[in-house]
Specification:
Elements (H helix, E strand, L loop, with lengths): L1 H35 L5 H19 L2 H6 L2 H27 L4 H28 L6 H20 L1 H7 L5 H22 L10 H45 L10 E8 L7 E9 L2 E9 L3 H18 L6 H12 L8 E9 L4 E7 L4 E5 L2 E5 L2 E2 L13 E4 L5 E5 L15 H11 L5 H15 L10 E8 L1
Parallel strand pairs: 5-8
Antiparallel strand pairs: 1-11, 2-3, 3-4, 4-5, 5-9, 6-7, 6-10, 10-11
Helix pairs in contact: 1-2, 2-4, 2-9, 4-5, 4-6, 5-6, 6-7, 6-8, 8-9, 9-10, 10-11
């Protein structure tokens, strides 16, 4: 008698232990997903919800646990248990959708939606009529159909290669164990065969299925982590290469004070600038902006660095510089475009020459007023041969020139207003006494102040300021 009396208690204890493990596993999965905050951890969220719901259902149906709860919790237990039974198929299908591809992924979404409709109907029926199993056979039928479909995909190599993101033998084994148990339980019940008491069989089968799933989900997350790490390493190399193609310092030129600032939107950017210093009194300033961002734009910026070597002999002729760069790049851009501007300063003759290709205007601050100098031709990449216009500028002591890319003008404030010409002129007017380097830092600070606190940079920003002394 004593041994037989202890058997139910041991079974209850086993249910409590398994339920606790499932709930803990579910919470841990959700916490990990919350910490990582990446798209690929969505599978951990659904896996955690699925496991936590199943564990909660085990605990709710265990008398030992029910007696511990307050009376109001015990009163809600039947409703909660009923809701979980209906919603388990929804969570399971959402987990599967993260590991399936193509048609099978769409099928899992459809089954999840159908399960959600059945769950709402079943829960509503329970609330109004107090019957918890009226629609449960339909829910079970949907679960059996889902299990058979997924088992077929997992077992058949041709299907698993086509429809599974991560085909895996452990997942195959766990799915087969769970499928066999589900078919046994449901088919046995439908055929109304004599009941066979096999305690914990369902729970052990589910545990095999769940943990095989967790193994594959972890593989998916870690595979993405390895891929992201590889990308980060490649970006780091790209960042170093891009840093090497940009000038390490500004040139020393008589009667000029020069500063440059480069702020890419991502790890690498599509803006480029360079100096063509011929001697202590003659220098060219080139700025370019490649359409797009990231590595593709950075590769074209690197091509600009190479192309610059071919135009060094004509550095004093902006039209020839622009024509040469356009000719070299036109066959290499593959549908992308580049804006550029080139300013040549001759301190011996006190003149400047300026030409541009679809670039924002050159700004000159002189005697308390801001002048916008536009001398634009076609963007690089539209036509291999194009004659770029050139405008001549006289140089006076106190002149301040500013070359920039459109990332300076585009940032928006909380009302959607762009930084634009007015805000830029305000900064230039109120900080006339600053050195070029200080002015560029002030411009960057003004942009950050202009944008909302949590706003991210939307484009590369490059600035070159030149003061004529």
């Amino acid at each position: 008698m004593q041994g037989s009396a202890l058997t139910p208690a041991r079974i209850d204890l086993a249910y409590v232990a398994l339920g606790t493990v499932f709930v803990f596993f579910g919470l841990a999965s959700c916490v990990i997903a919350g910490i990582r905050k990446r798209g690929e951890v969505r599978v951990l969220v659904w896996l955690g919800i699925w496991s936590g719901m199943y564990g909660a259902s085990l605990l709710l149906r265990t008398p030992t646990v029910q007696q511990v709860f307050p009376l109001w919790v015990q009163a809600c237990a039947p409703f909660t248990f009923n809701a979980i039974r209906y919603l388990l198929i929804v969570a399971a299908m959402l987990v599967w959708s993260e590991l399936t591809l193509g048609t099978m992924r769409r099928l899992t979404h459809f089954m999840a939606a159908l399960g959600a409709v059945l769950a709402l109907a079943g829960i509503g029926w329970f609330l109004f009529h107090g019957l918890d199993d009226t629609l449960l056979p339909y829910n079970n039928f949907l679960a059996v159909c889902a299990v058979i479909s997924l088992a077929a995909i997992v077992v058949v190599p041709r299907l698993s290669t086509r429809f599974l993101a991560f085909p895996n033998r452990i997942l195959t084994l766990g799915t087969l164990i769970f499928t066999a148990d589900a078919l046994f339980r449901n088919v046995w019940g439908w055929l109304r065969l004599p009941h066979i008491d096999l305690p914990l069989l369902d729970e052990v089968a589910f545990a095999c299925f769940l943990f095989s799933f967790a193994y594959v989900a972890a593989q998916k997350v870690f595979a993405n982590e390895r891929r992201l790490l590889a990308i980060e390493n490649e970006l780091d190399v790209a960042r170093q290469i891009q840093a090497s193609i940009l000038p390490a310092s500004v040139p020393e030129v008589e009667h000029l004070r020069i500063a440059a600032l480069y702020q890419p939107m991502t790890a690498v950017g599509g803006d480029f600038y360079d100096f063509l210093r011929i001697d202590a009194r003659h220098t060219g300033f080139l700025m370019a902006d490649v359409a797009g961002h990231g590595v593709p734009a950075a590769l074209i910026a690197a091509m600009l660095k190479v192309a610059m070597q071919s135009v060094l002999p004509c550095a004093n002729a902006p039209a020839e510089v622009m024509q040469g760069l356009n000719r070299i790049l036109s066959g290499q851009l593959h549908g992308q475009f580049v804006t550029a501007a080139y300013l040549w300063l001759d301190l011996e003759k006190r003149i400047g020459l300026y030409s541009a290709a679809g670039h924002p205007p050159l700004l000159r601050w002189r005697a308390g007023s801001l002048e916008r100098i536009e001398c634009n031709g076609l963007l690089f990449g539209l036509m291999p041969e194009f004659d770029y216009p050139v405008c001549a500028l006289d140089l006076n002591a106190g002149d301040r020139f500013l070359l920039y890319t459109d990332g300076l003008m585009e940032p928006e404030n909380a009302t959607g207003e762009s930084f634009g010409d007015r805000a830029l002129e305000h900064v230039l007017r109120n900080h006339r006494a600053l050195t070029p380097a200080e002015l560029l830092n002030e411009l960057l600070a003004a942009i950050r102040h202009w944008q909302p606190t949590l706003a991210t940079q939307q484009d590369d920003i490059t600035l070159v300021a030149v003061d004529v002394l």
